[in-house]
């Protein structure tokens, strides 16, 4: 058995917590501080996750394309009927639309496409191909036909981060782990929070963070959206690097073990988020109750990770 990379297992642990927290924040975005944190998470958490997926695309430490496809079919059916049950109170056995991935399932479709395309793209010079994919991602925002169908917009827009991971060497991240860089990273996140809290108003900027619609659909003029997406790309890269600076490279007895099984948690947690949204359970929460709720979300994520790990270990045994 190949030795696991503790650094990336640790990173995945914290990233999956950010994913679940980010989705739980959607229950209460009317609070300005929650909206700012939500935006900050969305700027870098999926680009960082996708970077890690790209990094392992060059090894055997990754789910096979066939497995991802089966997961997509299974969860698309399950989410369709589950959502129908929540909304209508009963299950209508209608056809499942496989062309539009349900909520988090876009990630599976994107992984399948990126895995299929990357072996051909990676034969080119990364100094050429990565800027080219960034340019294509920026151009994609002009096309109103790209959107949720087959997750085409997200596949195109987020592909540069997958390629960046594919070509990356971890030693470049390690070079940034200097004492003054920790302080710089803290200032970056604090400054980002303040900017997102006070400088951006309305839903247009938040919509653009989903990478799923054209600039005009988000509420921007095409060239304004182009420049904002370029800024988001730079912001995501710098914030992702700042995040990785804080991740320990050593083995953390619990965290790195739980970080091994994040994909199923990424999929399963959405059943609970949909339930909370449907019944709007946080509507009358005050600030202390919100903090307790988010702490519970973190604990819930750790429990899901633990169950995933125990399931994998039992299969091995």
Chain-wise SSE layout:
Elements: H1 6-25, H2 32-56, H3 65-88, H4 106-121, H5 126-140, H6 152-167, H7 170-174, H8 179-198, H9 204-208, H10 215-218, H11 222-245, H12 255-258, H13 262-279, H14 287-316
Question: Can you offer a commentary on this structure?
Answer:
The chain has one domain (6-316). It is built from 14 helices and no strands. The chain has helices at 6-25, 32-56, 65-88, 106-121, 126-140, 152-167, 170-174, 179-198, 204-208, 215-218, 222-245, 255-258, 262-279, 287-316. Helix 2 packs across helix 6 and helix 13 (262-279) runs antiparallel to helix 14. The model has no long low-confidence stretch (mean pLDDT 86).
Proportion of residues in extended strands: under 5%
The largest pleated sheet is described as: none
Number of strands: 0
**How are helices and strands ordered from N to C?**
HHHHHHHHHHHHHH
Number of helices: 14
> Uncertain segments of ≥5 residues (pLDDT<50)?
none
Helix content: over 70%
Taking the alpha carbons of the first and last residues, their distance comes to 14 Å
Short recap of the structure:
With 317 residues, the protein is mainly alpha-helical.
Keyphrases for this structure?
single chain, 71% helix, mainly alpha, globular, 317 residues, 14 helices, 0% strand
């Amino acid at each position: 058995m190949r030795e696991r990379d503790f650094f990336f297992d640790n990173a995945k642990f914290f990233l999956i917590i950010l994913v679940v927290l980010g989705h739980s924040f959607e229950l209460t975005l009317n609070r300005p501080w929650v909206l700012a944190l939500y935006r900050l998470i969305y700027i870098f958490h999926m680009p960082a996750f996708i970077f890690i997926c790209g990094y392992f695309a060059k090894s055997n430490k990754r789910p096979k394309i066939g497995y991802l496809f089966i997961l997509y079919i299974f969860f698309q059916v399950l989410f369709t009927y589950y959502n129908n049950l929540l909304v209508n109170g009963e299950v209508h056995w209608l056809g499942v639309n496989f062309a539009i991935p349900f909520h988090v399932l876009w990630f599976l479709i994107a992984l399948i496409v990126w895995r299929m395309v990357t072996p051909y793209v990676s034969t080119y010079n990364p100094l050429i191909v990565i800027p080219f994919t960034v340019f294509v991602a920026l151009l994609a925002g002009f096309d109103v036909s790209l959107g949720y169908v087959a997750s085409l917009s997200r596949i195109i827009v987020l592909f540069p981060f997958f390629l960046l991971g594919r070509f990356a060497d971890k030693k470049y991240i390690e070079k940034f782990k200097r004492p003054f860089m920790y302080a710089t990273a803290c200032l970056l996140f604090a400054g980002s929070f303040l900017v997102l809290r006070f400088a951006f108003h309305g839903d247009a900027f938040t919509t653009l963070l989903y990478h799923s619609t054209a600039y005009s659909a988000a509420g921007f003029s095409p060239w304004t959206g182009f420049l904002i997406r370029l800024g988001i790309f730079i912001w995501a890269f710098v914030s992702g690097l700042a995040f990785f600076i804080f991740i320990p490279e050593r083995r953390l007895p619990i965290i790195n073990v739980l970080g091994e099984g994040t994909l199923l948690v990424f999929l399963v947690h959405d059943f609970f988020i949909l339930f909370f949204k449907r019944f709007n359970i946080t509507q009358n929460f005050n600030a202390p109750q919100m903090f307790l709720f988010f702490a519970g979300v973190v604990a819930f994520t750790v429990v899901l990770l633990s169950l995933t790990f125990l399931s994998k270990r039992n299969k091995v045994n």
